[in-house]
Input
Amino acid sequence: MLVYKKGHTNLAHFYTSSIMLPMVVLSKPAMEQLSVATTLFTEVPLIDLSKPDSKNLIVKACEEFGFFKLINHGIPTEFIAKLESEAIKFFSLPLSEKEKAGPLDPFGYGNKKIGHNGDVGWVEYILLTTSNEANYQKFSSIFGEAAEKFRCAVNDYVSAVKKIAYEILEMLADGLKIQPRNVFSKLLMDEESDSVFRLNHYPPCPELHQEMNDRNLIGFGEHTDPQIISVLRSNNISGLQISLKDGNWISIPPDQSSFFINVGDSLQVMTNGRFKSVRHRVMANGSKSRLSMIYFGGPPLSEKIAPLPSLMKGEDSLYKEFTWYEYKKSAYKLRLADNRLGLFEKIAAS
Output
């Protein structure tokens, strides 16, 4: 059983110390982004779940941004703190120990490599399934008896976040005036739901930051999320950026007490393009660690994804019908920045 050094569990120490990823040779174009956002965006849609008009504001935010900030969410702070503490313990370990939780198959520990098509970033991460059959055996060899504590921290947090995702999706159905109100949420509630959970750690990298002459370092390259909805929480370190409709990138002010919600590709299709899947990316910090935790709510693999007839109102469908398995298989053959939905868009007759 591993014994963690006292300093590793101190949050301030973790976020300001250089817990480095192993240096590998990466071309600057692969890690660098020239179009950088230099100012924090202060007009992020703010949704207060305690307010009665939330459902209409959520619909508006999904139409205009595909993204919003959530407050008064009701997720216990102790669940957040416990999982963050366990994540810090893991990411503070030597690389040789962390690699015992890899390689990805498709779950486990990953380092720099994102997917199988050449995408890289200044990030290390843990990817887990949210099903009851989640396998924590890899972590037993690292944490020993403490693996159960890690499992419980993940399960408590994910269970709470799932409920928020269900609630948001049902509020969206209410706001869109469609029945049944669980038309979206039932896909995540299904026991066959293909949902995943990800812990991302973006370590400080002062040497590489200086070498790049203060240009931003890509932590996770630009992309959209293929699932239905994503629920994100991070520590108080900036880095998240989203792309507006005009193509400009804007930086999102961090807020460790709030959550951020992303519309995914599947929800864009189900609303026939009314909701927009938000394109986003993460820029690493030269001197501080960023830790984020994301729940990706996905449908069962066999679920057919297509615009809902109740939202069509005589409109033509913009997308071909596909199963989540077909879309997932197609999406993961592409690079992060590719338009994954492009292959499933209907071409208008000329």
